[in-house]
Amino acid sequence: MGNPAIEIRLGGIYVLERIANESDKDYLPIMKILAAYVREKSLIKRGNTENKDSEEQEKDKELSTDIQVVLEVICKREHSFNEN
User: Fold this and answer.
1) Which pLDDT band, with edges at 50, 70 and 90, does 61 fall under?
2) What residues does each domain of the chain span?
3) Cα(57)–Cα(26) distance, rounded to whole angstroms?
């Protein structure tokens, strides 16, 4: 998931989803990895917003495709994080 190519990152996300769905043992660690990925990679760009119009400011807040896919995978999960 650290590859600069979006296609590779998306493939990695979908492979992790498949493994999580097929392996109870790997389910929770994979969900934790995906959650950490979102926390680390979805930081809103900070910077000088004084010279930006509202459209540019909103674009800075948009989530990347890979973050959107990870969030979809997490939302579709079948188990709770509280399960052991």
Assistant:
1) low
2) 6-75
3) 39
